[in-house]
């Protein structure tokens, strides 16, 4: 007996590039003191006020089956939030609540891709993207962006890859690059989507973490509302990663079918989690700013550290909780550098190659430890890179 081809080939024919991360975790389990700058997990946990609402809701009995599309109150709150931020009329009928953004990405691709269809995604990419597309039964096709463009995608590259494709997945602000797509970039993407008749799946889970410029949802661009599915989440905006609560905003006809899909797969999100999410969103900008502030502060500290040396270059860190650093001056690949840094200084970072070929020769640093320790670790990283470059 064999498992399905789909489940056996989610990660394709090659490694997923996360060996450095797993090695660092094994070292920690063995008792070694490792500074982790790897995954996007907040160093401050969910705000106590959110947890208090979650507990009160659970104790009040909201622990049974919740409505599969999401409770109306939360759907209304998400719709109002999206309408306020984009100016696009949005109601609960445009919203389905999902078990986190990752489930939303899978559901969105399942909604628009038939088995064998081609789904496009941009490289560098969040690690699950190609596997998510394959999991939906589609063929994952990457479009490489360039470091010299600060990883802003070129419309000509998307257009060249789009023949026969049905969807395009984008992420702004971007994990792993920290880049916020410019209005010009998004307008060009929208033009290609309309010309090639593509569904656009827009991962906007970092929309509260913008350090330079402004976040623009492509759903707000002319003629895009009927072909755009926006994926959002409480994970990054409110430090609720383990609560698994997200959403998809899409045309009503898409949401109707996504509700059917959820009925046959996830069967919704626990009601006490939704009540807590509704409270968190209703708390307004001040709470979101509180969650984002450590990363804004550390990003400014990182800019100072990096400006004091000449070896490591920073891809413009315009948003999200990461830095994408160019370490090609060392002569090492991102993976080799990350392994050497771990062995020499017990600092764990993610190789750029973990996020696609376009990020080769780069590393991703998560800004997820206390300020003083973060600055010291980044300084060690830069000094180590300089030593390697000088010894070439």
From TrEMBL:
Q: Which reaction does it catalyse?
A: L-aspartate + 2-oxoglutarate = oxaloacetate + L-glutamate
Listed Pfam families: Aminotran_1_2
Domain Aminotransferase class I/classII large: where?
Answer: 36-372
Q: What class of enzyme is it?
A: transferase
> Which coenzyme or cofactor does it need?
pyridoxal 5'-phosphate
EC no.?
2.6.1.1
Q: Which GO terms describe its molecular function?
A: L-aspartate:2-oxoglutarate aminotransferase activity; pyridoxal phosphate binding
Q: Which CDD domains match?
A: AAT_like
Signal peptide extent: none
User: What processes does the entry annotate via GO biological process terms?
Assistant: amino acid metabolic process
Q: Which UniProt keywords apply?
A: Aminotransferase, Pyridoxal phosphate, Pyruvate, Transferase
- Cite the Gene3D superfamilies for this sequence: Aspartate Aminotransferase, domain 1 (3.90.1150.10), Type I PLP-dependent aspartate aminotransferase-like (Major domain) (3.40.640.10)
Q: Which family does it belong to?
A: Belongs to the class-I pyridoxal-phosphate-dependent aminotransferase family.
What name is this protein filed under?
A: aspartate transaminase
Give the species this sequence originates from: Ruegeria halocynthiae
Write the lineage as a comma-separated list.
Answer: Bacteria, Pseudomonadati, Pseudomonadota, Alphaproteobacteria, Rhodobacterales
């Amino acid at each position: 007996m064999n498992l399905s081809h789909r489940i056996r080939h989610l990660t394709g024919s090659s490694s997923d590039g996360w060996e450095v991360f797993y090695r660092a975790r094994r070292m920690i389990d063995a008792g070694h003191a490792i500074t982790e700058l790897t995954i996007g997990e907040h160093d401050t946990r969910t705000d106590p006020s959110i947890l208090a609402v979650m507990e009160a809701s659970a104790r009040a009995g909201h622990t049974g089956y919740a409505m599969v599309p999401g409770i109306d109150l939360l759907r209304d709150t998400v719709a109002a939030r999206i309408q306020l931020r984009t100016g696009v009329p949005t109601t609960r009928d445009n919203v389905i609540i999902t078990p986190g953004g990752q489930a939303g990405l899978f559901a969105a691709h399942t909604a628009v891709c038939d088995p064998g269809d081609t789904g496009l995604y941009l490289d560098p990419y969040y690690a699950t993207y190609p596997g998510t597309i394959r999991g939906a039964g589609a063929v994952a096709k990457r479009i490489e962006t360039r470091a010299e463009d600060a990883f802003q995608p070129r419309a000509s590259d998307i257009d060249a890859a789009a023949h026969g494709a049905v969807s395009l997945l984008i992420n702004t602000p971007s994990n792993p690059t920290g880049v916020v797509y410019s209005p010009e970039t998004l307008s060009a993407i929208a033009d290609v989507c309309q010309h090639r008749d593509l569904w656009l799946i827009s991962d906007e889970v970092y929309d509260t973490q913008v350090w330079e410029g402004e976040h623009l949802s492509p759903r707000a661009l002319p003629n895009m509302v009927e072909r755009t599915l926006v994926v959002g989440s409480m994970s990054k905006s409110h430090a609720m990663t383990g609560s698994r609560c997200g959403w998809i905003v899409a045309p009503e006809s898409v949401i109707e079918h996504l509700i059917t899909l959820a009925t046959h797969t996830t069967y919704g999100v626990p009601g006490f989690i939704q009540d807590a999410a509704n409270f968190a969103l209703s708390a307004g900008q001040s709470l979101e700013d509180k969650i984002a502030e450590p990363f804004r502060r550390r990003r400014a500290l990182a800019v100072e550290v990096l400006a004091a040396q000449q070896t490591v270059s920073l891809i413009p860190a315009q948003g999200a909780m990461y830095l994408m650093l160019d370490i090609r001056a060392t002569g090492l690949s991102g993976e080799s550098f990350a392994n050497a840094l771990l062995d020499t200084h017990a600092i764990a970072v993610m190789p750029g190659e973990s996020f696609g070929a376009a990020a080769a020769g780069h590393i991703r640093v998560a800004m997820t430890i206390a300020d003083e320790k973060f600055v010291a670790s980044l300084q060690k990283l830069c000094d180590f890179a300089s030593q390697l470059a000088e010894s070439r």
